[in-house]
Amino acid sequence: MLILRRSDVVETLKGRELDIIDLVAEAYRLHDEGSTALPHSTFLRFPEEEHERDRIIGLPAYRGGASPVAGMKWIASFPGNVAANLERASATVVLNSLENGRPSAFLEGSVISAKRTAASAALAARVLSGHAPPTGVSLVGCGVINLEILRFLKAALPSLGQAALYDQDPARTEAFAQTCAKAVPGVRAVTVTDLDEALATHPLISLATTAAEPHLDLSPCAPGTIVLHISLRDLTVETILDAVNVVDDTDHVCRERTSLHLTEQHTGNRDFVAAQIGALLRGTAHIRHNPGQHVVYSPFGLGVLDIALAEFVREQAEHNRLGIQVDDFLAS
Fold this sequence. Notes:
It is a single chain. By secondary structure, this protein is α/β, with parallel strands linked by helices. It is 36% helix and 23% strand. The chain has 11 helices and 16 strands. The strands form 2 sheets. Strands 1, 2, 3, 4, 5, 6, 7 and 16 form an 8-stranded mixed beta sheet that branches. β4 (55-63) and β5 form a beta hairpin. It starts with a strand and ends in a 7-residue tail after the last strand.
């Protein structure tokens, strides 16, 4: 059993944004052509009121293709951690051998989870913006995910030079601006104190909040704005119905009271979903819309991305002799 710590994962993935975006794109293509196995995520919730917002999610997955891999991500989301100056999410990934089913690697998963999320967002921004890449982005929610998204957006869209930052906590926004300046020096990050101003400032928006219920419409946005709806529960049903909606997997995203799930319950169908990202990448689907219509990308976060990236980390770490090898983890 190879055990890879957070430091091992960070070292392996440092500066590999474009490689990760390509890996995520290939996983989406394989998923769209039916070369993956992806059961629904399992949500473990707790009966106590004090844990009402907390959950632990299991995401098993298999990626086929030239280099098959199987495993599961186990990720906890405890929003109260933020007030205690802890990261909201923590995760582990286990990979299993396809020769005998035995676990072959155990990885710290929060870095993998954040980077595959950011790569998915940046990939969608590049695909959906086409020949008119944006020069700025508005980040709503000043946390780990939007920091990674900014980093990956800059890699995918070299023209990006500005970012407007908004969070409900102004002090958090100011601290985030300083972090962005160090982490992504090629982007000028500016704080804003009004949500409507943030939505109106740039034609590309990333929503990465801890919202549990829809609270937002896109009326302040410029026509044709692209919205990366990463946290999945920010936008109202009416907003989803007015937009062109692109998802990673329609069946997965219409669950767990996401904005799209609520829209399905409201309409009784899923006709509001225009395309899946894998089909756009393969050219088997195209989106047609009014040039002034907003485009919303809502990725549920498929476990196959975590498994694909974890396998990449494992391969690179073994080559570079990183991690801890535990030879007696299993019975001989």
